[in-house]
């Protein structure tokens, strides 16, 4: 398999580009690519370019070949609204959601979230999750990088949403996705933290017009529920 790398600037139509230090280190020292090996670069704007690796002293260069406007994005715009989860669960969620075709990820602070983030610490974690999304795109072939948005309180986020259908995952929900109608625009999937949504949060979500949905009779973990729901809506209305 040819290695894919995200190039941080706009790729020209031809010629060559100098690989940034971190990218060159990963290609040469981690993956141990050799002079003349093929690679693929993408810049996040929807296209990718075949390239050949050239090493000139301490500088790594990619000689660009044909550019392809390969669009591997789902026609269904899905935003995963994920309550903060502890440990490395958020890394896993971001990685797998990108592979499944999510359009964006919105972390929210919930009442029962074990992980509490704010200020500079929140900014650093979001930047880390954004890099996880970049790496997932490199692996899965996507040429557009989903945005990991700044952390918000659930109530603040709900107050700003009027442009998509909001499905709140809740055990014991009145219905499942089998009964849901195709959304006219995008879909927001709201996933609670390890301890679940509080009664106050459920009431706020209901008042904001969220539809409660169930993923069957079993209670899924926070790192499982959103990914399962994402796969379901992709199969029903997306590109699965």
UniProtKB/TrEMBL annotation:
CDD domains: RsmE-like. It is an enzyme of class 2 (transferase). GO terms for biological process: rRNA base methylation. Its main location: cytoplasm. It catalyses: uridine(1498) in 16S rRNA + S-adenosyl-L-methionine = N(3)-methyluridine(1498) in 16S rRNA + S-adenosyl-L-homocysteine + H(+). SUPFAM superfamilies: alpha/beta knot, PUA domain-like. It is found in: Cytoplasm. InterPro entries: Alpha/beta_knot_MTases, PUA-like_sf, RsmE, RsmE_MTase_dom, RsmE_PUA-like, tRNA_m1G_MTases_N. Its EC number is 2.1.1.193. The keyword rRNA processing applies. Residues 20-61 form the Ribosomal RNA small subunit methyltransferase E PUA-like domain. Residues 73-234 form the Ribosomal RNA small subunit methyltransferase E methyltransferase domain. Keywords: Cytoplasm, Methyltransferase, rRNA processing, S-adenosyl-L-methionine, Transferase. One of its GO terms (molecular function) is rRNA (uridine-N3-)-methyltransferase activity. GO terms for cellular component: cytoplasm. PANTHER family: 16S RRNA (URACIL(1498)-N(3))-METHYLTRANSFERASE, RIBOSOMAL RNA SMALL SUBUNIT METHYLTRANSFERASE E. Belongs to the RNA methyltransferase RsmE family. NCBIfam families: PRK11713.1-5 (NF008692), RsmE family RNA methyltransferase (TIGR00046). Specifically methylates the N3 position of the uracil ring of uridine 1498 (m3U1498) in 16S rRNA. Acts on the fully assembled 30S ribosomal subunit. This is Ribosomal RNA small subunit methyltransferase E. It comes from Thauera chlorobenzoica.
């Amino acid at each position: 398999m040819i290695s894919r790398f995200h190039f941080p600037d706009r790729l020209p139509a031809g010629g060559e580009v100098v690989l940034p230090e971190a990218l060159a280190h990963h290609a040469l020292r981690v993956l141990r690519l050799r002079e003349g090996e093929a690679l693929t670069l993408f810049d996040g704007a929807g296209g990718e370019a075949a390239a050949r690796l050239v090493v000139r002293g301490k500088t790594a260069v990619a000689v660009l070949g044909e550019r392809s406007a390969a669009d591997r994005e789902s026609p269904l715009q899905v935003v995963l609204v994920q309550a903060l989860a502890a440990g490395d669960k958020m890394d896993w969620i971001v990685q797998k959601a990108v592979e499944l075709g999510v359009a964006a990820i919105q972390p929210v602070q919930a009442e029962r979230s074990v992980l509490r983030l704010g200020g500079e610490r929140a900014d650093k974690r979001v930047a880390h999750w954004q890099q996880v999304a970049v790496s997932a795109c490199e692996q899965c072939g996507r040429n557009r990088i989903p945005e990991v948005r700044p952390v918000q309180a659930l109530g603040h986020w709900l107050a700003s949403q009027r442009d998509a259908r909001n499905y709140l995952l809740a055990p014991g929900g009145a219905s499942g996705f089998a009964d849901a109608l195709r959304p006219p625009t995008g879909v927001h999937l709201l996933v609670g933290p390890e301890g679940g949504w509080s009664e106050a949060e459920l009431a706020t979500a209901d008042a904001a017009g969220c539809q409660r949905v169930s993923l069957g009779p079993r209670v899924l973990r926070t790192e499982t529920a959103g990914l399962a729901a994402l796969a379901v809506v992709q199969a029903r209305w997306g590109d699965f």
